Amino acid sequence: MNILMVASEMTPFVKTGGLADVAGSLSREMEKRGHNIKAVLPYYRTIKDGNFQVKPLGQRLKIKMPDKVVEGRIMKGRIGANIEVWFIKNDHYYDREGLYGTAKGDYADNAERFIFFCRATLESLKETSFEPDIIHCHDWQTGLIPVYLNTLFKDDPRFAGIRTVFTIHNVAYQGIFPPSEMPLTGLGWDLFTPEGIEFYGKINLMKGGIVYSDILTTVSKNYARQIQTGEYGCGLEGLLKARQKDLYGILNGVDYDEWDPEKDRFIIKNYSRRTPGGKKDCKSSLLKEFRLEPAPEAPLFGLVSRLAEQKGIDLIADTIDEISSLGNLVILGKGDESYENMVAHLIEKHPQKVGVRIGFDEALAHRIVAGSDLFLVPSRYEPCGLNVMHSLKYGTIPIVRATGGPDDIISEFNPDTGKGNGFKFYDYSKEEFCSKLKIAATLYREKKLWRKLVQNALSCDFGWKEPAREYEKLYRKAQGRRRGTGAGFPPLQE
Ligand code: ADP
């Protein structure tokens, strides 16, 4: 199959969270399965300044906006030998410090930036001979692509064979903008209705993707159920329920070429399930790196996260005294200013026990995952939780809130049977979190049981093979659909 993967971030080029890992690894895995993959990304400053071989492709793009014509270029790069990546270049939109904004908030023109991205992606197909069978769109930044295929580009025979799969990585980020931005989309006001992309008087780009795509997926089975409820659906639950026959939960895989303690290039000593000894060196080196007291007998807790409300950072702040009494804690994170400040303050109270780095640091993320004994994921909600799967591979035991993906991934360790791969708590409360921390810290001192638990974690396999097979099945299902009929809500008029 010819597959066009469209996302706003993708490894190895640019990453703020799990979306980038998934877009990159899934592309590589699909290519390994024999498909012809092309990927599309905005040409951000970090890519421009990075060490990537990129050159212009085709003519300049010209996209008509209401009061101007916006020009862009396609730049061509590669992942490995066989995957061509097209970068949509427009320096005014993408040559900026952040992808979506700064710690102070989102860029004011995000609607325009990603409307342009969607339109330019489809226009770029005209510049090449590539004819996708499937366009796989990821998150709200790509939500208008399925809409355009069923409206503005509907009568273009070049696009007639294309079917769409839309993956929701996080339903809380929908791309909601005031109605004054509607003309930028180039779509008629007839789409500004509850059956179209209108959402409580505003426009909602993710809603466009959900209404108009042939197949919908999200990143775990549990999250697929959760987003159909008022508690987790963020207002889209009714629509997602209406499309539940086309909505699939596929747990993301882990790229074990990148995340494997046996060959990890970022850690001080490699180790594996058969030779787990190197983990001790990773721990002492991490403690040293954060200038914390050497304490091999006390558990080291780790946390690597986007710093956003979702991630349960306030629960860490509320329990910092208890965590410090049980062991040491190292944190790496970047995100909202208020949470960056909250985390930075934790050191002041416990300078010998807590280490914090604010920033995005791939290598340090690996060192924390490898060097910690326990990995904290106390999220309010968590669609997939790639971090949880990374930790397991490194024998670092997750303590997770039982929600979304983590609830699917973790089974509670039972000391009597020796079964289970981590710890989970249910209520989003200090009491429950603390009680789980204490149980984990106590078990840590029971060497034999702990070794068993670590072995269980190291034996887990969350590679991409199975998820890629599931995506392939869905691509075929989408291909079998009559054009537009997948968009069951509303039934499109042919
Ligand atoms: P989300 O997609 O919500 O951010 P996931 O746990 O699914 O959460 O994926 C997060 C990914 O981003 C992981 O690969 C994690 O290691 C990485 N990550 C998050 N924050 C940072 C950071 N500050 N520095 C380096 N890597 C980070």
Map the helices and strands.
Layout: E1 2-6, H1 18-32, E2 36-42, H2 45-49, E3 55-65, E4 68-79, E5 83-89, H3 91-94, E6 101-102, E7 105-106, H4 110-126, E8 134-138, H5 144-149, E9 163-168, E10 176-177, H6 182-185, E11 198-199, E12 202-204, H7 205-212, E13 215-218, H8 221-226, H9 237-242, E14 247-249, H10 278-289, E15 300-307, H11 313-318, H12 320-326, E16 328-335, H13 337-349, E17 354-358, H14 362-371, E18 374-377, H15 386-393, E19 397-401, H16 404-409, E20 423-425, H17 430-444, H18 447-458, H19 465-479
Parallel strand pairs: 1-2, 1-8, 2-5, 8-9, 9-13, 13-14, 15-16, 15-18, 16-17, 18-19, 19-20
Antiparallel strand pairs: 3-4, 4-5, 6-7, 10-12, 11-12
Helix pairs in contact: 10-14
Describe this structure in words.
- The protein has 494 residues and is α/β, with parallel strands linked by helices.
- The protein folds into two domains: 2-253 and 465-479, Rossmann fold (3-Layer(aba) Sandwich), CATH 3.40.50.2000; 278-458, Glycogen Phosphorylase B (Rossmann fold, 3-Layer(aba) Sandwich), CATH 3.40.50.
- Helices cover 35% and strands 21% of the residues.
- It contains 19 helices and 20 strands.
- It has a nine-stranded mixed sheet, with helices on both faces. It has a six-stranded parallel sheet with strand order 17-16-15-18-19-20, with helices on both faces. A three-stranded antiparallel sheet has the order 10-12-11.
- Helix 10 (278-289) packs across helix 14 (362-371).
- The protein is globular.
- The two termini are 26 Å apart.
- Residues 488-494 have low confidence and may be disordered.
- Adenosine-5'-diphosphate (ADP) is lined by residues 17-19, 21, 304-306, 332-334, 360-362, 365, 384-387.
